[in-house]
Design brief:
The structure is a homotetramer of 367-residue chains. With 367 residues, chain A is α/β, with parallel strands linked by helices. Chain A has two domains: 2-165 and 314-365, Medium-chain alcohol dehydrogenases, catalytic domain (Quinone Oxidoreductase, Chain A, domain 1, Alpha-Beta Complex); 167-310, Rossmann fold, CATH 3.40.50.720. In chain A, 26% of the residues lie in helices and 24% in strands. In chain A, the strands form four sheets. In chain A, strands 3, 4, 5, 8, 9, 17 and 18 form a seven-stranded mixed β-sheet that branches. Chain A has a six-stranded parallel β-sheet with strand order 12-11-10-13-14-16, with helices on both faces. In chain A, strand 1 (2-6) and strand 2 (15-19) form a beta hairpin. Strand 15 (293-295) of chain A pairs antiparallel with strand 15 (293-295) of chain B. Chains A, B, C, D: Its cofactor is Zn(2+).
Amino acid sequence: MISAVVMTGPGAPLEVRAFERPEPEPGAVLLETLGSEVCGTDAHLWKGQLAGVPYPIIPGHVSVGRIAALGPATASGVPKDVSGAPLEVGQVVTFLDVYGTCGRCWYCTVGHATTRCPSRKVYGITLSADEGLLGGWAEYIYLRPGVHVIPLPAELDWRAFLAAGCGMPTALHAVTLGEIAFGDTVVVQGAGPVGLSAAVLAQLRGAGSVIVVGGPEVRLDAATRFGADAVLDIATTTPEERLAAVREATGGRGADVTIEATGVPAAVPEGMRLTRDAGRYVVVGQYTDAGTATFNPHLDLNQKHLEVRGCWGSDVGHVYRSVRVMARYARQFSWTDLISGEYALAEAQKALEDVAAQRVVKALVVP
Amino acid sequence: MISAVVMTGPGAPLEVRAFERPEPEPGAVLLETLGSEVCGTDAHLWKGQLAGVPYPIIPGHVSVGRIAALGPATASGVPKDVSGAPLEVGQVVTFLDVYGTCGRCWYCTVGHATTRCPSRKVYGITLSADEGLLGGWAEYIYLRPGVHVIPLPAELDWRAFLAAGCGMPTALHAVTLGEIAFGDTVVVQGAGPVGLSAAVLAQLRGAGSVIVVGGPEVRLDAATRFGADAVLDIATTTPEERLAAVREATGGRGADVTIEATGVPAAVPEGMRLTRDAGRYVVVGQYTDAGTATFNPHLDLNQKHLEVRGCWGSDVGHVYRSVRVMARYARQFSWTDLISGEYALAEAQKALEDVAAQRVVKALVVP
Amino acid sequence: MISAVVMTGPGAPLEVRAFERPEPEPGAVLLETLGSEVCGTDAHLWKGQLAGVPYPIIPGHVSVGRIAALGPATASGVPKDVSGAPLEVGQVVTFLDVYGTCGRCWYCTVGHATTRCPSRKVYGITLSADEGLLGGWAEYIYLRPGVHVIPLPAELDWRAFLAAGCGMPTALHAVTLGEIAFGDTVVVQGAGPVGLSAAVLAQLRGAGSVIVVGGPEVRLDAATRFGADAVLDIATTTPEERLAAVREATGGRGADVTIEATGVPAAVPEGMRLTRDAGRYVVVGQYTDAGTATFNPHLDLNQKHLEVRGCWGSDVGHVYRSVRVMARYARQFSWTDLISGEYALAEAQKALEDVAAQRVVKALVVP
Amino acid sequence: MISAVVMTGPGAPLEVRAFERPEPEPGAVLLETLGSEVCGTDAHLWKGQLAGVPYPIIPGHVSVGRIAALGPATASGVPKDVSGAPLEVGQVVTFLDVYGTCGRCWYCTVGHATTRCPSRKVYGITLSADEGLLGGWAEYIYLRPGVHVIPLPAELDWRAFLAAGCGMPTALHAVTLGEIAFGDTVVVQGAGPVGLSAAVLAQLRGAGSVIVVGGPEVRLDAATRFGADAVLDIATTTPEERLAAVREATGGRGADVTIEATGVPAAVPEGMRLTRDAGRYVVVGQYTDAGTATFNPHLDLNQKHLEVRGCWGSDVGHVYRSVRVMARYARQFSWTDLISGEYALAEAQKALEDVAAQRVVKALVVP
């Protein structure tokens, strides 16, 4: 029997349940879990802040495992990784948590906006535990036929990959949309996993300066260790002071590119103001509905000639590229330092609470 | 002596004053005015709603004239048009009202955002009548050395060009930023000169459908004559009804691209909602500070994966391209029908009031 | 029994064969053919100029039909069109000839270059007659589960759609890559179906001038009727004369954007020279290997700061947008005039020969 | 009196001549030279391979100096740097060698392609010694009013800046056009100053792998020290072997982005083949006319869906961003190691010959 953590509904205590070991159907893959991320979204799930969640679920959307079994070949052949290489038992892999993007709807085919495909489901979030081992906080994970699998290169420690977690592909998507030019001043709002990853990725776009606005201090310290040129603590500064500081650092103009990764509505108009005229502002942190914000369309948008880009979700490319980047620049950034604690399945409840309380930067569930 | 209309200050009655006929300095051009546009901005100027206006001014920023005299050659040669051809006395030309973009500041050279150059001045708006004939509501206009001059092709009636007026380059800039794809559904908010031009230009990008949201009826009728597939009157519909109508027309998705040209802050969050997920929204109509707007960053921006682009001002290219497009497609769109009245210099006050009251679609001052 | 034209191999006479009427499997659609295009590619197929063709095939890749029967619903529901609306018996539809794009390989998921997916097959080209009614020159066409179906709007005559044929989505792809700006001078090399469609689409991007370079005269006449501002006959001009003519028309600079649609290697370096410095050149007509071309990398590419874009194939979006654009602007362009002849199945051999000899602009097979 | 190296004509021995110390006119700046680059272009100049060079010239286009004197203020105020800060005597600065971009011609205003402005002149290349101290191989450099001045930040050693030299802004322009995505495999053809800079900048775009193709060994060793993941020596490999090696490293696909920096025409078709389908190829190294190249438009361009971008010259932004990037990432890349020798004015002839013979990676003239 296989143990897995089950979240039965909002607010209910997590349970560890036993599941049958599944035999992979054609095209499917069974992973023995090495570890799975605990992410802010898991806290949102537990608080019932996301719509359309089919409780009970097995949480854990970004995970790494060792291939334990492969299903038989299908008409399209044996299960393959994203590059087209056949998968092998024993390989250490991750996978795209998003499953079922249809490739046929208007958004997939005409709009080329696959993260808005209405058929997409997410491992650990919108797939029910009643349907199987479809989340990472479990001894094994069942990858249905069609799940996108990406091997981890030898030079990339799986703990490092999980330490960045889903923040990395999310940030990679946002920073890509930011279209940072060489030498740009980049402001990152938020010092959580997405913000830290964005601060790193901005350097890997050749930013001339990276300023992280956020808190608490433990996270700002991490930002500094990861190369931020300056940090601004929201607990000890006013928006006016932050605006003054960013302008001071940019010849009075403001940031060339700003990346929002906070989840706080008021951060959005502030971010518009922190950005220079004709700059670019990417909003990726407003993952749940936390209310409204007020801005001045003349001053904050039209006269500024500002570009604002909302950024939703990740696709295969973002995860594939995250793995490539983390492997290539592994020595420059010590991701594993971010891991404050590893939790067994039976300790998942505590992991969730520690993350919700921001007592840790990054927690892993390690079965 | 030369007569010109002078606006001495906010609210003060317009006056007609006499000026000496200037002798063009090296590189300068003297135009005999054929006509000049009366635009909503002139009403803003008269109400004192723009900052930094050096009253007294001669209004009139988009104008057409016949070259009356050319200044001597400079080190760079005789005065030339934007294409590099020498100008000749007798030619019918327009010119870019924006003057003095420095080509040397950070915005001009590094930011490539010339409409945010702090040195730019605008004929008829931010150049004082004390400095000369620097506005179009006058018998002659003095083009300083370096003003960008564009001849009107024979097939483009100067009245047609002025009928579109500054709305055309403004809309051309906005529609360019809209990156309309073939077959897209385009919503235009606003049926004034910018909105009508945007509705025309959307068709000249191959839009599959153009929906104009605005009023009053006389302007919506013009929109229909100019090819709009549907119009929605803001006087007789609620925002919810408009959203329902746009979704109904787009398989439930919303507009692919929306262009805002209203000047009303509340139009901005409405426009975000009228646009589909992963669509694009260009805000060009918030030309003066008319207050704030409230939106939901999660629903209206982040989860929508929406792109929002503020659009400020026009550059030489926008006016040059406007002339090219209006000349090429002149037979398809009857611009001169928009002209509700022509006013002599002595009637400029009435022109201003008619425009401010939206009693006319387009008024010209014809000295 | 159902009649279909079969091409058994390169050079062999076409045959009309009888097929069983298939019963649609779940998700499939059976079309009663209204008409199918005869395209230059069919002549290439007959001459054996394409690799990987699984003869025998039923030619005909762009077709229109009436839905005769629908297969049962699958797990994803009843068969739907690209917009998500359920298909109905009796609807007049077209479909994307490209079938089987996998949505899983590196090119589909990471490269976002679906026209380079190695799994794609094409109706009428790379699907064998041994597998069924998988081409348009037949009384019925069998659309396998997953084929992308697009209804024709009432305002779009199916003959008009076929008159443009596959040239339209191909040109739409190329013109999209051309990123034509308002008022640009566009040169189109080639006056066949792709070139004519490109000349039309350039006008629907607001080109300031469209110059078609090609032949023979019958095609250049069509180009003129479709709005080309000038035509240059390759039979009566030298490359030097054409270059001089294009420069003369553009203030000495050359075309802002050039679209190649010729199939002749030597046209490529000529097109580079016809394009202005810092312009853009799209190469879409080199569909088969017709040999090499020679150019000067310094003069023709590097110093010119030229952008050159090869363009391969079409995806769902290109066909969907073609239908939208042709329906919306149907009255402006009389596509059906291009149809020189309609051929019954038994006359398909003659159709092929007429097209190969360029005796017709466009031929249709109408069963 | 001021000493300067003068190149009197192609092939003639360099001379050291004495000049009067100029008094800066309004807006001008006099620099005391700290050092000036010796670049491959200087060898081209000496061999007479560039057209339009107004011999005699003072070579040296990328230079660093200390401000010795400032001209009086003009109507636009005191001389300022690119960011708008007033310049001060004693500051260590560089400047954009390109002077006189007009900001008024069609290319400057409509085409937005300032590196194709016909008025541009280049310090050390197309400005004559008869007009003054307009090149860097001199004790002092005279910066005319309007020359774009950029201070070097304290953390950027001026020798490091010159070690990268004009290769850095050139490469920065090319790599920007390359639009490298996170994790991309980037091939750089050429291991000279442009190629080495491109290899570094690719890493500062988050490339997943950088492969340098070139020679001789001393340069490939430098490439490896600067982080290249692999090098391919053109002296010991065939084009077929290089293609095989690049495909082997990319799952059979080829490079996502290739940057050409060789000057050899045959490298261009090879580079097209080294790049994957739907990839991007930037050609920046074909600076002089070295003859023609032959390619297959079907296989190498059209079917590949390849994008090829010629890249000419640098603008202010490229130099400004080069300074920002070199200062920010100075510790990661030891530029000064590239300097093989420093030469006094009297040794300039030897510097030129050492560079022409590729005996050195980088030489500086230090007066």
